[in-house]
């Protein structure tokens, strides 16, 4: 409640509506992440993969300022509206991150930065079947490779995404 996350049933319904409203092929052809980078070094390192005048790693990364967002009424943090990209990045913070199930429910290809903490269901997810693995030590190149591969093999990714979350 303190960060305006709705109950799972209503949020899942909104995610499904958003997923059905925009085909994967029509989404932004980049990897997306929005979160608090100040909770872990691995997240701060992820920010180096953002678009700059020197590099385009095919990632669009945004810092979430929860204090400012709460003052503005959480207008920029609606989870259902964050499924507009073909690829969503999951990366841990201090430990496991609550964002994991929301990212997986986005009907995008999940790019999962190597986790060190596991909740009950991630243990059963298989790389290249349920998510695309991203190397923790070389995130930028790994993200760029995954997005480039996906954007040149669209039909394989569509089959992959449809297999993961048949909505």
Give the topology.
Blueprint: H1 8-21, E1 28-35, H2 41-46, E2 59-63, H3 66-71, E3 85-90, H4 99-104, E4 109-113, E5 132-134, H5 139-152, H6 154-164
Parallel strand pairs: 1-2, 1-3, 3-4, 4-5
Which labels suit this protein?
5-stranded parallel beta sheet; 6 helices; 167 residues; Rossmann fold
Description of the structure:
This protein is α/β, with parallel strands linked by helices. It has a single domain (8-163), classed as Rossmann fold, CATH 3.40.50. It has six helices and five strands. The protein has a five-stranded parallel sheet. The model has no long low-confidence stretch (mean pLDDT 84). InterPro entries: CAP10, O-Glucosyltr/Glycosyltrsf_90.
In short:
The protein is of the alpha/beta class. The chain is 34% helix and 16% strand.
DSSP strand content: 15-25%
Total DSSP helices: 6
Strand-pairing-aware structural class: alpha/beta
Low-confidence stretches: none
Mean pLDDT score, rounded? 84
Major sheet: order of its strands? Answer: 2-1-3-4-5
Q: Look up the CATH topology.
A: Rossmann fold
> What's the helical proportion of residues?
25-40%
Number of domains: 1
Radius of gyration: 15 Å
Please state the second-level CATH architecture.
3-Layer(aba) Sandwich
Domain Glycosyl transferase CAP10: 1-160
Organism: Citrus sinensis
Protein name: Glycosyl transferase CAP10 domain-containing protein
InterPro entries: CAP10 (IPR006598), O-Glucosyltr/Glycosyltrsf_90 (IPR051091)
């Amino acid at each position: 409640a303190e960060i305006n996350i709705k109950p799972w049933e209503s949020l899942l319904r909104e995610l499904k509506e958003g997923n059905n409203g925009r085909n994967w092929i029509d989404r932004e052809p980049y990897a997306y992440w929005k979160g608090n980078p100040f909770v872990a070094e691995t997240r701060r390192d992820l920010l180096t993969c953002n678009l700059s005048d020197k590099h385009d790693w095919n990632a669009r990364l945004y810092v979430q300022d929860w204090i400012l967002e709460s003052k503005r009424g959480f207008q920029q943090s609606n989870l259902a509206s964050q499924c507009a990209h073909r690829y969503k990045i999951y990366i841990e913070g201090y430990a496991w991150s609550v964002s994991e199930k929301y990212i997986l429910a986005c009907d995008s290809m999940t790019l999962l930065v190597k986790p060190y903490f596991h909740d009950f269901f991630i243990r059963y997810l298989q790389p290249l079947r349920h998510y695309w693995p991203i190397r923790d030590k070389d995130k930028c190149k790994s993200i760029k490779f995954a997005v480039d591969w996906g954007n040149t093999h669209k039909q394989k990714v569509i089959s992959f995404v449809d297999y993961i979350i048949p909505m």
